[in-house]
Each structure stands twice: as C-alpha cells, then as structure tokens.
Amino acid sequence: MKLTLLHNFRKDEQGGILAFYLVMFMVMMIGGGMAIDFMRHEIKREAMQDALDRGVLAAAGNAQTAGAATAAEIAAAEAAAVSTVRSYVSLAGFNPDTAGVTVQPSISALAQRVDASANFSLDTYFLRLTGIDILNGAAIAGAAVSFSNIEMSLVLDVSGSMDFDVYDSSGTLIGRRIDLLQSAANQFADTLLSGDRPRYTSISVVPYSGQVALPNYLADEYVNFGRWNPWHNYSNCMKFNASDYTTTAFGRLEGRYQYEHFNVSAGRGGGRPSAKVPWCPDSTAQVVPLINDLQRLKSVINNLTPQGATNTWTGIKWGTALLDSSTQPIVSHLTTRCPGGTCIVDPTFSSRPAPYSDPTTLKFMVVMSDGANTSELLVPHKIYNVWHTYSAYTQKNADYWDQYYADGAITDSNGNYLPNVVRTSGDEGDVRMQNICTAAKNAGITIFTIGTDIDPNSNAYTQMLNCASTPGHFYAVGAADLGAAFASIANTIQKLRLVN
What we know:
single chain; three-stranded antiparallel β-sheet; Rossmann fold; six-stranded mixed β-sheet
C-alpha cells in the first residue's frame, strides 16, 4: 500500500505545474514592474525636456527682443537667459542645482542662441529587485533666433508715363501710376522698417527716368574720391561706359563725366498739358542712399514726381553700386556728415555695403518699370561754329541747354535746330541692362522685378523677366496691383532673412 502511494506521488505532475505558474507569475510581476519604472523614468525625462525646451525658447526670444548690442548689454542678456532657463526647470518641479542644469547662451546683435542640459535620477520600485536602485537620465535643448542684415536698393521708374491715369474695371479713376506706386512702396517700407528692423535694414532709393540724378552731397563724394569730373552745376547725372555695366563694382576710377543738363518737352497723361522736364531728373527724383528711418523713407517716396524718358539700365547700375562694397568709403564718410545733428547715413551703417562674402548680410534689389528702355540722348556743343558730340568736347564750361523735341530734332531755347545725337539706343540699353543684372545676380544680389502695365508679348516684359533672379522673382501686374506685388516681395524678404 505504501509503495503504491509513493508510486502515485512520484507520477503526480500537478505540483510541478503550480510551481511553474508561480515562477512565471514572479517573472511577469517583475517585468511589469520594470515597465512601470521605465514609464516613470520616461515621464520624468519628458517633463525635464519640456522644461528645457520652453526655457531656451523663452530665453532666446527675450534676448532677441532686448536687442543687445554693446558688451554690457550682451552680458546682461546672457545672465538673463541663464536665469530664464533655470526658472522653467524649477517650475517643472526640479531643483536646478541638484539637476545639474547647465545653460550656455551665445548672444550677439544679430543672433541669439541658448543651449541647455540637465540631469535627473529616479528611485526604482521594481527594478531594485534586479539590483538596479536608480535610473539616471539627461535632457538637452537648444534654440536660436538668428537673422541677417538687409541691404536693399529700390530702383523705381519715375518716367513721364508714370503720370498716366489708372482706371478700375468699371471705368472709375483710381489714381495715377505714380500714386499707386507711392502707396505700394509706403506699405513696403512699413513692413521692412517696422519694430527693431531699422537697426539692421538699410534701403537706398534710386529713382530713374531719362537718367539718374544724385543730390549735391552724394555728387560731392564722387568728386572728392576722384570718380567724377563735373563741368556744370545745374544737375548731377553721371555718364557710364558700356564696360561699367559688366560689374557691380564702382571703383575709384577717373574718366567719368557729367551728363549735360537740358530740358525736353514731355506730354503728360490723362489730358494734362505738356511740360518741359529735365533729362537729368530734378530734386524730386534723386538718389537717397541707405535710409533706415521710416518717415524719411516715406517722405522720399512721396516726393517722387514723374518726368522724362526711361533709362532702366542706369537705374540698375546705381542700385548695384549702392550694394557693392567698393562704395563703402563714401558711405562711411556720409555717416560723419550730420547737418543739423542728423547724419545723412546712420552711423550704424559705416561699414556698409558689406562684402558679398559676408554671411550675416543679405542684399536685395527691387526694380520697377512701366515700359521699354528709350534712347539716351547726347547734347552736342558748338565750338568755333562746329557742332561736336560730347566725346570730342574736353573744355569744361557751364553750358545749359533748355531744349525740347521738334519734328524729331533738338532745338535750343531760341528755336535753332541742333543735331539730334543719340548716345545710347534703347536696344543697346537693353544689352547694358541685362549685363548689369547678370553681374548683380552673379555677385549674390537677389533681384525682384515688377513690370507694370506692360504687354506680355513686349520686349519690355522680356527684359524685366530676364533681369529677375528667377521667373518667380518677376511680377507682371497692373498698376492697381502694385501693392500686392510689393507686399509679396516684403514677405519673401522677411522669410529669407529668418532662415539665413
């Protein structure tokens, strides 16, 4: 009997299954407990990471808003960044000291970066059954608010056709082209020079018609640097050679001459009477370099007056010259010329234009035109009763030609006919325009072009399209849509500035 019971017990497997279940249960409990510990660790890590992420973002944003520029301001901004990150870590329930929070701010006038790291530990519940009493972890975060300086030239058509009236689809007069341009350019200025942007944005205005005129103070700079040989005091337009349009540089070279001053009869749009206007624009349409004052920029824009023909190639030449570092000595000197206490150029910009290789600077040019390039005329001179073109005329004098067109010729103020001399044809102007556009693009200038009220099948359309950096940088719009075109360009520029 006893042998039978022993034999049965030996064959009974129920106890083994129970033991197996007990072992599996223990394993499952430990495994589940480990999962709980790991989950607790991840929750704590996420809390720490979130605190660091929000802290560095806030710190970088605050530093950008502060606009630190001097060494003392930068030191204060960096101390504030450290304090900001530590406060976010503390609010998340961590002790910044025991967590080993490390904050590394790197702040300058153009870029604000804050990096941070922290450590934490977690006492385990179940993992200690396997000999792991503590789980350690770490979190790192970084945030940057960086942007670029902006240098820009606004090359604006102020030829006589900008005086034309514009009507909407119902036939209602909505203003002249110049009025709509001024409204669009003012909104553009509001975007580019709002808030703290004037400290890193400079905008040069280059109005052009039959030529491009300089104010006296800028003309003096070119004379003083040996770049120009003026021979009258009526206006300040400079003659360029064909080779000048193959480069953005405008070095200290001799041989530049002053454009003759003369008036032409120009019909005005909308039934307005004809009026004599200077071929070299008057004081209402002169170049103004490197503006960063919003109200001054608007005043320059609102003062523009339509007059004369269309010489886009010289407008672009001046636009690029004011973006090229070869002009820097002149700009630097203008920052020291402060009549009435206001400097012609903000002293902040004494080192502009920056070299094209400067990684902190973006250069843009916006070219607006409402038509084709026209021929550039040359005034002849009478020496010893013989008419000569300017190339043969070397004697300096103060000749002033008050002229107008008559039957395809030029006459003086007494009605005497003079030889009709064309210095540069419209076709040659197109060649020079594309040459200077190509030189600008190759140098690194981003060119936006706006063709206003021009036929898509016209040469003017082709010239503006080819000048733009890409087809996407060309806007063909009616005058009524100039505001939308300028707004789109402003938004694109701001996006480019933030990602560079």
